[in-house]
Amino acid sequence: MQSIHARFRVAHDGFTLDVDLLLPGRGVSALFGASGSGKTTCLRAIAGLEHAPGGTLSVNGEVWQDDSRGLFVPTHQRPLGYVFQEASLFPHLSIRRNLEYGMRRVPERDRKVSLDHAVELLGIAPLLERMPDWLSGGEKQRVAIARALATSPRILLMDEPLAALDLARKQEILPYLERLHDELEIPLIYVSHAPDEVARLADHLVVLEQGRAVASGPLGETLARLDLPIRLGEDAGVVLEGEIAEIDQAWHLARVAFAGGSLWVRDSGVPIRQHVRVRILARDISIALEPHADSSILNVLPATVEELADDTHPALALVKLNAAGAPLVARITRRSAARLVLRQGLAVWAQIKAVALVG
User: Fold this and answer.
1) What is the pLDDT of residue 340?
2) pLDDT band at 1 (very low <50, low <70, confident <90, very high)
3) Which domains does the chain have, with CATH numbers?
4) Cα–Cα dist 350/320, whole Å
5) pLDDT tens string 71-89
């Protein structure tokens, strides 16, 4: 199985990054955490811009650093693409020539991503003859990503690529990032502190705090952990993968089928059979011992209690549920948990009040 193994220890005044990560060799791995948690330092170490003494790094079988053998491949010799917060295009070159500059880094025999493919993936064909100063922030960032892809990288690194954009420009570019996720074989490591981006793009989640990885694993499993509840934004919750199975045009609803059953969500115009993600917040799940037909709640799933844990407030508890293999996390009062006599293995019904398509 292809994978990325990164072990780094980088010491700065007042801060030390100390991580040992095993990431999948395909898909999107998100490095998530607050400012100063070590996300960018970790990414720079992967790129070779920060030398971590004694560190090791292998990318799908290629060793780029192993200080025990005196091996350190310099940045310019690593087949990677790096996208920064700012697009940093060459202002005196047209968009086409900016892209061609990226391609010239790679011998023709080693090119695996054609210029036409990069242009098509990012939807920038109409921009090729323009100059950078004529582009919006979102357009510039799409060009920067295409330029990184034009180097045919074996790994793509993105350091908060949407942080400098307003909400409208972020919504413009996120569908293109999803295309990269769906259509490219190369792994992408994505640094962000924005929960909506992580929920929408990530397959694997690494949570950094004060230079250490406090959690690392597949997105759904990691978000469902009760020993370390991870809050993407305002609340704990999970993200489930599914596809649109039915559209109820009369009530403007769509049914999303996933491993544990199906959920009704607001119809967002997504066609049937298209893959989607749904985000379910812990505060939007209640638990019952019997199904109730006389309720406004549309989504009621059979589930089994797997684990209970105290929440941050002494009145509240977190309950991890298994809905036919799909993990859910509910937040209820400890009083309710005691009244229902919740315990591991108990069969219950998860009543899901509100579900949103991610994106």
Assistant:
1) 97
2) low
3) 3-223 (3.40.50.300), 237-357 (2.40.50.100)
4) 11
5) 999 998 999 999 988 888 8
